[in-house]
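Incident review: delayed structure delivery

Summary: a single-chain prediction request sat in the queue longer than the usual turnaround. Root cause was a stuck worker, restarted by the on-call engineer. No data loss occurred. The affected request and its eventual output are reproduced below so the record is complete for anyone auditing the incident later.

Affected input:
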Amino acid sequence: CPGPPMNLPVFDLAAIDRAATSQLVLDTVRDALIAHAEGRTSVPPPLHMAFPEADGDCHVKAGWVTGAPNFTVKIATGFYGNHGLGLRTNHGLVCVVSARTGQIRALLDDRGLLTAWRTAAAGALITHAMSRPDATTLAVFGTGEQACLQAVWLAKLRTISTVLVHGRTLHKAHALCAELHRRGLNARPAVTQEAAAADMVITTTPATTPVLNATHVRQGAHVTGIGTDMPHKNELPPELFHRAQVIATDDHAQCIDHGDFGHAVRAGATAQDSDIAAGELLKKPFDRPEAAITVADLTGVGALDAALASTVLDQLLR
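Output delivered after worker restart:
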């Protein structure tokens, strides 16, 4: 027999934005990456769809951290022509479900905010962990929300002297620089070669061909790619993985299937077992060779979404 009707809590963007601090997000994502590296998560393969006529894509990801009270199913979309329509590029929601009863606990109508936070935190954490301690110049490829967040969140973990912004259009690069200035960071536009030669490089685009040349990345630099999350996307060239002495992935199977690491493996630029789990590098200080080139390929892990959504829901329910 059906049980009594249930009023399902639905929390909107404003409530979610008020519920969490950046430190809470960073701590939650760090712990979840470590749990995933240790095999303490359940993450089915993501579902993804492309809408080329609208320059859009959709991901459905699920995940659970072993022993946690909740698991989640998340829908996240990116429609890259929305800016011209006066709409946000990213959208979505997260369904939080009890891992003990199967009852839906809440819908987080976050419009993609939790995905943006999770991505920014993961990128900042692994970039900080894998970069030289004295690295201070950051280059971001891309001019959207994630390019801004990556710079701002990395600046919470280390000193950044200059942010070099490379975008397809100069006026968008100037607009992002103005926003970064407003947030207390020194930023200026840069051409591809100058940006690729920064101490730290983060690519945040939906590109289908590499956005930088591997030969422009200098010894001792670190590169994090976060935009390649579907098989047809590709930000980092295979040659960069060939030059790298350390390669980190957030999820080995995902990165092989639809990450830049997978493109490099299929091109013969690196071995299929040449990567290390990103969470392993967060467990203890990374003893990095001074002149090494290091690369991180992040495709987004459902267990991170689960951990973050559950943590934020706890805050909301308080």
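Verification: The domain at 120-300 is CATH 3.40.50.720 (Rossmann fold).
Action items: add queue-age alerting; document worker restart procedure.
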